[in-house]
Write a structure and sequence with these properties.
Helices cover about 30% and strands about 25% of the residues. The protein contains three helices and four strands. The chain has a four-stranded mixed β-sheet with strand order 1-4-3-2.
Length: about 110
């Protein structure tokens, strides 16, 4: 199980660090209307470089969620696993051939 979680964490890190080039990047409407594009770019960079994983926000060691403060707002990001067509949850998130990762960035108040 630990090896499987490591593989999932590695794939999640690649997705997050790619800034949306690997997988899909989703920004909630509440997030998009709150920040101008320059702030959104900065927040994307903070998500890409996020490394504050701990027992509270990463209990399964998969690097699939994090949160931080930005200009008096709490930002949450999370990665969900879907099949290639985005119709169903992935059967095996450790297999990038059958999994599309969706990175969502949102305000905590929208969660």
């Amino acid at each position: 199980m630990e090896q499987l979680n490591y593989k999932i964490a590695q794939l999640n890190d690649e997705c997050r660090q790619s800034g949306g080039r690997i997988g899909r990047l989703m920004l909630t409407e509440g997030f998009k209307v709150t920040f101008p594009i320059v702030d959104i770019a900065e927040i994307n960079e903070l998500v890409a470089t996020y490394n504050d994983f701990n027992e509270e926000n990463d209990p399964h060691s998969e690097h699939d969620m994090g949160f931080f403060d930005y200009q008096n707002y709490k930002i949450i990001w999370r990665i969900d696993y879907y099949d290639i067509d985005l119709n169903y949850r992935s059967e095996d998130p450790s297999n990038s051939q059958i999994t599309t990762r969706v990175l969502t960035i949102m305000l905590a108040s929208n969660y």
